């Protein structure tokens, strides 16, 4: 039994060894057959990049294709992920250079359930410090979002694409900062700040409190500030609309300014003369102040009497300018004309004598009546009864009388009669 078992075990070991030897050959034959079949039957095969990766994003049954153009795609490769809010929603199917410009065009396959506005943005991000590159799709601000939906065949232009900083760029900037930058001056800055703030902690604390109060006030007045900025914006827009008129006004103003510049000496001389005139006028007013006040005080009674006359003065002037045919007389005359004959003695000596004989003074002179309100003036006025009036030479007749009806020269009115001569009696000899 023991010999039989040894022979059987030996045969089994020889069979396993032979099988191990034949396995690589079988695998190699199968791999070659697979490559031959793929090369002959699949004309669109583009290599390993064309094979789908396990564990990729679920693009659904009817995904749509979106293209985006970038200035630089770094090391983005096909089958890279496409994400929205860090959630895989698709993959990159192709990266190529456009024919019309030196821009990279990335073709993406996106799940049909992804809802993005038509003006969506694209950015190349990196999953970690040394992680893979992927394309991040995100929405624009709500105020700029399009109402239309991103769909198949849409193109995201270069203006709405970008990329994040590379690790090499960050390390290069850090190297410049540490080696040739201002990192060595940080200690100096800290020391100077310590010197500036040493012993002034109270003032700095008070300054910070005031700044906090100022910021709070500005925050509370942000509506007014916004309104003021809006008003300034409206004003600037209005000025922009009136730009042509403003240009015209400035262009028309130039000749006037040139004339003023040419007449500068004359203007300066005029202002200097005006200054001298103002000085002289001030001296005159100061020197005649008492006389002017005295004249105004003397004029006050005259103005008071004029005010007391009321409407009598305009009525008398109305009669004076329409004598002898007043408004009432014209209404009583039939026809469109009337006859008037008048003899006027305009001899200056006779007029002067008539003015002296009239019982109606031309002016309310001081000391002439008890009701006079004028101040006493040292005028050489003579009192007493006036002499008999002198009748004017010649004769006059109206429409109802003749030359024989006028009084004879040197005659006086009948006893008991009161004739003041009418409105022009003081000129034509009326008493």
From TrEMBL:
<feature type="domain" description="Mammalian cell entry C-terminal">
    <location>
        <begin position="146"/>
        <end position="320"/>
    </location>
</feature>
<feature type="compositionally biased region" description="Low complexity">
    <location>
        <begin position="374"/>
        <end position="385"/>
    </location>
</feature>
<dbReference type="InterPro" id="IPR003399">
    <property type="entry name" value="Mce/MlaD"/>
</dbReference>
<protein>
    <submittedName>
        <fullName>Phospholipid/cholesterol/gamma-HCH transport system substrate-binding protein</fullName>
    </submittedName>
</protein>
<keyword id="KW-0175">Coiled coil</keyword>
<keyword id="KW-1133">Transmembrane helix</keyword>
<feature type="coiled-coil region">
    <location>
        <begin position="190"/>
        <end position="277"/>
    </location>
</feature>
<feature type="compositionally biased region" description="Gly residues">
    <location>
        <begin position="422"/>
        <end position="431"/>
    </location>
</feature>
<keyword id="KW-0472">Membrane</keyword>
<dbReference type="InterPro" id="IPR024516">
    <property type="entry name" value="Mce_C"/>
</dbReference>
<dbReference type="InterPro" id="IPR052336">
    <property type="entry name" value="MlaD_Phospholipid_Transporter"/>
</dbReference>
<dbReference type="GO" id="GO:0005576">
    <property type="term" value="C:extracellular region"/>
</dbReference>
<feature type="transmembrane region" description="Helical">
    <location>
        <begin position="23"/>
        <end position="45"/>
    </location>
</feature>
<dbReference type="InterPro" id="IPR005693">
    <property type="entry name" value="Mce"/>
</dbReference>
<feature type="region of interest" description="Disordered">
    <location>
        <begin position="361"/>
        <end position="431"/>
    </location>
</feature>
<feature type="domain" description="Mce/MlaD">
    <location>
        <begin position="63"/>
        <end position="138"/>
    </location>
</feature>
<dbReference type="Pfam" id="PF11887">
    <property type="entry name" value="Mce4_CUP1"/>
</dbReference>
<keyword id="KW-0812">Transmembrane</keyword>
<dbReference type="Pfam" id="PF02470">
    <property type="entry name" value="MlaD"/>
</dbReference>
